[in-house]
Automatic annotation (TrEMBL):
This is Phosphoglycerate kinase. One of its GO terms (biological process) is gluconeogenesis. The keyword Kinase applies. Its EC number is 2.7.2.3. It comes from the Archaea. It comes from Halomicrobium mukohataei (strain ATCC 700874 / DSM 12286 / JCM 9738 / NCIMB 13541). Keywords: ATP-binding, Cytoplasm, Glycolysis, Kinase, Nucleotide-binding, Transferase. The gene is pgk. It holds the Pfam family PGK. One of its GO terms (cellular component) is cytosol.
C-alpha cells in the first residue's frame, strides 16, 4: 500500500481542514486536559506558523452519554498548548461555520463544533457514502486540502475521517504520522518471551473483538474494567450487568458480544486471567473488597479489581518480555480505585520489558500517580486504534489517506 502524504508535501499558504482527536475525559461538565491536546498542538502550531488558514474538526463523547459536550472548552485548552488563539464556532457546517471560515486570515485557527452533533457523522458507512453527505459536500469546497491527525479515531468510518479525503487532496498530520509509524513497527515485532496484555476500560466491544484476533500473539490477557466483568459473567459469576438503569455500561455490550466472549473463553481459557477479587465502595464510601467466589448476587458497582488480583497481575507482568495495556483496570481517577491500574503500570515501569500503554484516559494515570512516560516503551494517545493495529489490520481512516486516485 502506498505511503501517505504528510505536511512536508503540503504547499504553504492554503486553507486546510484538519481532523484532530480531542476526545477527552469530562468530570462534572469540565473537560480534562490530557496528552491528546499536547500532541495535536504540534501539528496545529506548525500549520499556523506556516501561515495556513486552519480549520479544526474533532469529536467529543457519544450522543446520549454525559461526555457528549460542546468543544468550546477544548478551544481554550488547545489554545493554551499552542500559545496562540483558537477561535470556536458552535456550528459544524451551517451558515455560522461558513461565515467564520470566510473570516479567516493566514495563521488563524478556528475549531468547529463537535462533529458528532452532525447527524451524518456517525453511522459507520463506506467512505464513498460518507463523501456524499451534505456535511462533506458543503464544507469541502471551502478548502484546498484535508489533513487527518486523528490516528486514535482512524478505526471509525465516520464522515469527518473518511469522507473528506475522497474529495480533497489528503495529508497525514504529525500525530497521525508518528502514531502510524510507531504502531505499525510494534505490530511487526516478534518477542521470544511472554507477551501480556492488560485489558480494561469501558469500551469492551473494541477490546473483545481484538482479543479474538490476538490469540497467537498474546500469551496472557489480564482482565479488568467492564470487559473483565463481562468475562466473569460468561464464566458463571453473577456480575457483568448494569445496576443503574440510566447507565448502560454492561447490558448492551453483553448483548452484542456474549457469544464471542463465550467462544474466546472456550477456545483460549488458558490465556485469560480473570479477577478473583473485586473492589467497591462500602456504605461509608471507603474501598471494600470481596472474593468473586463469594458473590451470590451483584448489589454494588465494582470499581476496581481487588488487591490480590492486582498483585497477581503485577507478578505476571514482571515475568513478561512485552506488555500492552488498553484501558484502565478500574476507576483510577478516584485514588481508592486506582490499585489495579497503578499496580500494572508500576510493574511495567519497574521492569525492562517492552511496553505500550494506550488510551486517552488510561495514559493519564501515568502522571497522576507519579510515574514518568520515559518508563514506558511507547505511550500512545490511541486506545482502540492501536490494539487493532497490533492485529495487523489496517485502519479505514489511514487506508483512505493512502489511496492513489
Ligand atoms: N469497573 C469500572 N467501572 C466504570 N468505569 C471503569 C471501570 N474500570 C475502568 N473504568 C473507566 O474506564 C476508563 C477508560 O476507558 P476506555 O475509554 O475504554 O479506555 P481508554 O480511554 O484507556 O481507551 C477510565 O476512565 C476508567 O474510569
Ligand atoms: O477515544 C477514542 O478511542 P479510545 O478510547 O479507544 O482511545 C477515540 O476518540 C474514538 O472514540 P469512540 O470510541 O467514541 O469512537
Amino acid at each position: 500500500m502506498a505511503a501517505f502524504q504528510t505536511l512536508d508535501d503540503l504547499a504553504d499558504g492554503q486553507r486546510v481542514l484538519v481532523r484532530l482527536d480531542l476526545n477527552s475525559p469530562v468530570e462534572d461538565g469540565a473537560v480534562q486536559d490530557n496528552r491528546r491536546f499536547e500532541r495535536h498542538a504540534k501539528t496545529v502550531r506548525e500549520l499556523a506558523d506556516r501561515g495556513f488558514e486552519t480549520v479544526l474538526m474533532a469529536h467529543q463523547g457519544r450522543p446520549g452519554r454525559d461526555t457528549f459536550v460542546s468543544l468550546e472548552q477544548h478551544a481554550d485548552i488547545l489554545s493554551g498548548h499552542i500559545g496562540t488563539d483558537v477561535d470556536f464556532v458552535a456550528d459544524t457546517f451551517g451558515e455560522d461555520a461558513l461565515a467564520a471560515i470566510d473570516d479567516l486570515g493566514g495563521g488563524d485557527v478556528l475549531l468547529l463544533e463537535n462533529t458528532r452533533m452532525c447527524d451524518e457523522e456517525l453511522p459507520e458507512e463506506d467512505p464513498e457514502v460518507k463523501a456524499e453527505t451534505e456535511f462533506v459536500r458543503t464544507l469541502a469546497p471551502e478548502f484546498d486540502a484535508y489533513v487527518n491527525d486523528a490516528y486514535s479515531a482512524a478505526h471509525r468510518s465516520h464522515a469527518s475521517l473518511v469522507g473528506f479525503p475522497l474529495v480533497l487532496p489528503a495529508y497525514a498530520g504529525r500525530v497521525m504520522e508518528t502514531e502510524y509509524e510507531a504502531n505499525t513497527a510494534i505490530a511487526q515485532k516478534e518477542f521470544d518471551g511472554q507477551v501480556t496484555m492488560a485489558v480494561g476500560g469501558t469500551k469492551a466491544t473494541d477490546v473483545i473483538d481484538v482479543m479474538d484476533h490476538l490469540g497467537d500473539t498474546v500469551d496472557d490477557f489480564l482482565l479488568g474494567g467492564i470487559a473483565g466483568e463481562l468475562f466473569l459473567r460468561a464464566d458463571g459469576a453473577p456480575v457483568g450487568f448494569d445496576l443503574d438503569p440510566d447507565l448502560d455500561l454492561y447490558d448492551s455490550q453483553w448483548a452484542d458480544n456474549h457469544e464471542l466472549i463465550e467462544r474466546i473463553l472456550e477456545e483460549n481459557r488458558e490465556k485469560i486471567t480473570l479477577a478473583t477479587d473485586m473492589a467497591y465502595a462500602d456504605e461509608d464510601g471507603d474501598r471494600a473488597e470481596t472474593n468473586v467466589a463469594d458473590i451470590d448476587e451483584k448489589t454494588v458497582s465494582f470499581m476496581d479489581v481487588g488487591s490480590d488480583t492486582a498483585e497477581g497481575y503485577a507478578d505476571v507482568i514482571r515475568d513478561s518480555e512485552a506488555v500492552f495495556v488498553k484501558g484502565a483496570l478500574g476507576v483510577f481517577e478516584e485514588e481508592r480505585f486506582s490499585v489495579g491500574t497503578v499496580s500494572v503500570l508500576e510493574a511495567i515501569a519497574e521492569t525492562d520489558c517492552f511496553s505500550v500503554v494506550g488510551g486517552g484516559d488510561t495514559s493519564r494515570a501515568i502522571e497522576m500517580y507519579g510515574m514518568s512516560e520515559d518508563d514506558f516503551g511507547h505511550v500512545s494517545i490511541a486506545g482502540g486504534a492501536y490494539i487493532r493495529a497490533l492485529t495487523g489490520a489496517s485502519l479505514i481512516g489511514v487506508e483512505v489517506l493512502q489511496r492513489e486516485d
